[in-house]
Write a structure and sequence with these properties.
The protein is mainly β and 204 residues long. The protein is 4% helix and 48% strand. Strand 5 and strand 6 form a beta hairpin.
């Protein structure tokens, strides 16, 4: 299986007019790491939000079109690559005050339940075990309806997925904070997670 790593890759002429592949009942997919992001948003000084990326995303999924509840997903995020566009803040986030990346370089999510009462074309809830700093707790992600897969210019079956969720960072031991004179704290407890990824079908 080959995936495109840049928009500059040459397109074979034979793909002109290609149609989307038919959906199988259950199919295995791999996260295209070059087209996947795991973002976060958290309050700063009680007046604004800081946004950033947690790091490179990898993983696999099995999507069952006929029985969505049998679907599953496993994702790993390399938080050593955390990026909030401020080097000193990123260094602090990698430290033992937060993610402690020297001992815990990855954040992982393993699904335990998939709920899609209206099928994959409706709203989807994926519950699973989120592990941060060696602490595992259940989290439910809201997943947007899945579009049918397409065939990309390189001959791969491909589809997109977007998921959102909210967590309290203290539940995973990320407790560092700083009181501010005006009242409140420097960093909010609630963190919004946003995951967007393209999936590429594995060979049958």
């Amino acid at each position: 299986m080959s995936t495109a790593t840049s928009f500059e890759s040459s397109l074979p002429a034979a793909t002109a007019g290609a149609t989307a592949p038919a959906a199988a009942e259950a199919r295995a997919w791999t996260v295209d790491t070059s087209h996947a992001t795991a973002g976060f948003r958290v309050r700063h000084l009680m007046v604004s939000h800081v946004r950033g990326q947690l790091g490179p995303v990898s993983g696999t999924a099995v999507i069952d079109e006929r029985e969505p509840s049998r679907s599953r997903v496993d994702v790993s995020i390399d938080v050593r690559g955390i990026d909030s566009r401020e080097p000193k803040r990123d260094e602090h986030l990698r430290s033992a005050d937060f993610f402690d990346v020297e001992r815990h370089p990855a954040v992982t999510f393993h699904s335990t339940r998939v709920e899609a009462p209206d099928g994959l074309s409706g709203d989807i809830r994926v519950t699973g075990d989120l592990t941060i700093r060696g602490v595992t707790r259940p989290v439910t992600l809201q997943v947007e309806p899945l579009e049918a897969p397409i065939q990309d210019p390189w001959g791969n079956a491909r589809r997109g997925v977007s998921a959102r969720g909210r967590v309290n960072r203290k539940d995973w031991g990320l407790k560092w904070n700083l009181a501010i004179e005006a009242g409140g704290v420097a960093v909010g407890d609630e963190v919004t997670l946003e995951i967007d990824a393209e999936l590429v079908a594995q060979p049958a």
